[in-house]
């Protein structure tokens, strides 16, 4: 088996470890937890439609269930009892707002004899968009675009989202009189339910002042309606999001059922079976993609210089969510940007391969999951008259790897446990 095949297969193993169809059935309520009344299923995220299908396929004959789940365009699944709505991601749209309105309306109708089963995964924040009455969809879209482009972390982005929403930041739980069980596939570092899909059923430890601090730190000129909302909240003229310890959450159970760590360990087991040593460098890697790449390149050089410390062949695995601060006008995502910066830093070092992909199958705004590099990638680029540094400056990693023929295209995977990176040193 060649190194590229090892890396691609390990990525597929990592994705399969987070397959909702396989995971969800193990976490459904048992018979003793089923209610006397209704069961309502709601959800949001790139994996939510597959999660809904898994619920239907493994649900007992009684009690009957119904529900509404919102997912990204192209991610719907055939269901019989749960309505699937497709909406905009990463920029929210009218479909997402309508879906969130329907979900909130149905949740408010539940009683203490009912059960609310929530299905949340990465992408839920933009898909379950329901801004407060003073904020228009256009203003929400504008500030979302700013936050995505400025290099803010997902935690920072969601801090703002939760404080301009009527459903995120614990507000969905506050609107529900029924017991709540939330099944969550994590796409954030730390796997905190408060930050996954912006925590519709989780306590929010952040405050309006924190959201204002995010805008200030990243020098964002947010729409006036959003600035006014956050300032009013900071002056205690609006209710804060429900906090840890609030009685709102006494009837709520949030369960993370899949995470990046689980996927990394599945990939580790696969690679070890191929006779490759493995070092997991963590599933919580954050920071600028190109800076992380420089640090990893330095580690690779150490391994090559001192092979007695970390014996080769070795695979360095990592997950998490890096960021990209846009300075150019090219195309790409954080995984391809990481790889391009890594390629430049390695400068043609032999016997080193790498792959970086998003487990949802979509890196940034492209149609690719990510890309891969081989020891001759830089040479092939130079032969084609391509200057890697120029592509990096323009944030155009997608075009670079497309021209090399080294994009990794999987199509939607219908799950999302964030990034998967493997550096293979032979």
What is the topology?
Layout: H1 3-16, H2 20-23, E1 39-44, H3 48-57, E2 65-72, E3 82-87, H4 94-108, E4 115-120, H5 124-127, H6 137-149, H7 154-162, H8 171-174, E5 180-185, H9 208-217, H10 224-234, E6 252-258, H11 260-273, E7 277-280, H12 289-305, E8 314-320, H13 334-346, E9 352-358, E10 370-373, H14 377-383, H15 388-393, H16 397-404, E11 407-408, E12 419-425
Parallel strand pairs: 1-2, 1-4, 2-3, 4-5, 5-6, 7-8
Antiparallel strand pairs: 8-12, 9-10, 9-12, 10-11
Helix pairs in contact: 1-11, 7-9, 9-10, 12-13, 13-16
Task: Write a compact overview of the structure shown.
With 426 residues, this protein is an alpha/beta fold. It has helices spanning 3-16, 20-23, 48-57, 94-108, 124-127, 137-149, 154-162, 171-174, 208-217, 224-234, 260-273, 289-305, 334-346, 377-383, 388-393, 397-404; strands at residues 39-44, 65-72, 82-87, 115-120, 180-185, 252-258, 277-280, 314-320, 352-358, 370-373, 407-408, 419-425.
Structure in words:
The mean pLDDT is 96. The chain folds into two domains: 19-130 and 165-206 and 241-258, Glycerate kinase, MOFRL-like N-terminal domain (Rossmann fold); 261-425, MOFRL domain (glycerate kinase, domain 1). 37% of the residues lie in helices and 16% in strands. It has a six-stranded parallel β-sheet, with helices on both faces. The chain has a six-stranded mixed β-sheet with strand order 7-8-12-9-10-11, sandwiched between helices. It has helices at residues 3-16, 20-23, 48-57, 94-108, 124-127, 137-149, 154-162, 171-174, 208-217, 224-234, 260-273, 289-305, 334-346, 377-383, 388-393, 397-404; strands at 39-44, 65-72, 82-87, 115-120, 180-185, 252-258, 277-280, 314-320, 352-358, 370-373, 407-408, 419-425. The chain is α/β, with parallel strands linked by helices and 426 residues long.
């Amino acid at each position: 088996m060649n190194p590229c095949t090892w890396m691609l297969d390990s990525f597929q193993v990592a994705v399969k470890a987070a397959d909702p169809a396989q995971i969800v059935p193990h976490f459904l309520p048992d018979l003793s937890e089923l209610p006397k009344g209704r069961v309502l299923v709601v959800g949001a995220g790139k994996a939510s439609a597959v999660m809904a299908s898994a619920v239907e396929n493994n649900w007992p004959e009684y009690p009957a269930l119904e529900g509404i789940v919102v997912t990204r365009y192209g991610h719907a699944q055939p269901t019989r009892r749960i309505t699937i709505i497709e909406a905009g991601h990463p920029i929210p749209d009218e479909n997402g707002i309508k879906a969130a309105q329907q979900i909130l309306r149905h949740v408010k109708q539940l009683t203490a004899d009912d059960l609310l089963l929530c299905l949340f995964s990465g992408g839920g924040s933009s898909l379950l968009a329901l801004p407060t009455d003073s904020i228009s969809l256009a203003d929400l879209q504008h500030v979302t675009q700013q936050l995505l482009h400025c290099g803010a972390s997902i935690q920072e982005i969601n801090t703002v989202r939760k404080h301009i929403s009527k459903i995120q930041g614990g507000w969905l739980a506050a609107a529900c009189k029924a017991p709540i069980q939330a099944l969550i596939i994590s796409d954030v570092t730390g796997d905190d339910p408060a930050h996954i899909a912006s925590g519709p059923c989780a306590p929010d430890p952040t405050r309006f002042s924190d959201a204002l601090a995010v805008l200030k730190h990243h020098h964002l000129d947010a729409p006036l309606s959003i600035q006014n909302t956050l300032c009013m909240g900071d002056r205690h003229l609006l209710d804060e999001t429900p906090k840890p310890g609030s009685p709102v959450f006494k009837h709520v159970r949030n369960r993370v059922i899949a995470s990046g760590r689980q996927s990394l360990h599945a990939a580790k087991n696969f690679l070890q079976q191929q006779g490759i040593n493995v070092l997991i460098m963590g599933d919580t890697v954050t920071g600028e993609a190109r800076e992380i790449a420089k640090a990893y390149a330095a580690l690779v050089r150490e391994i090559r210089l001192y092979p007695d410390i970390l014996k080769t062949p070795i695979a360095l695995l990592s997950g998490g969510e890096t960021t990209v601060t846009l300075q150019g006008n090219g195309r790409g995502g954080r995984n391809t940007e990481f790889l391009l910066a890594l390629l430049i830093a390695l400068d043609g070092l032999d016997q080193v391969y790498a792959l970086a992909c998003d487990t949802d199958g979509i890196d940034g705004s492209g149609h690719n999951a990510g890309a891969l590099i081989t020891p001759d990638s830089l040479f092939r680029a130079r032969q084609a008259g391509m200057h890697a540094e120029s592509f990096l400056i323009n944030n155009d990693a997608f075009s670079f790897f497309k021209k090399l023929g080294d994009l990794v295209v999987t199509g939607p995977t219908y799950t999302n446990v964030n990034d998967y990176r493997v550096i293979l040193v032979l």
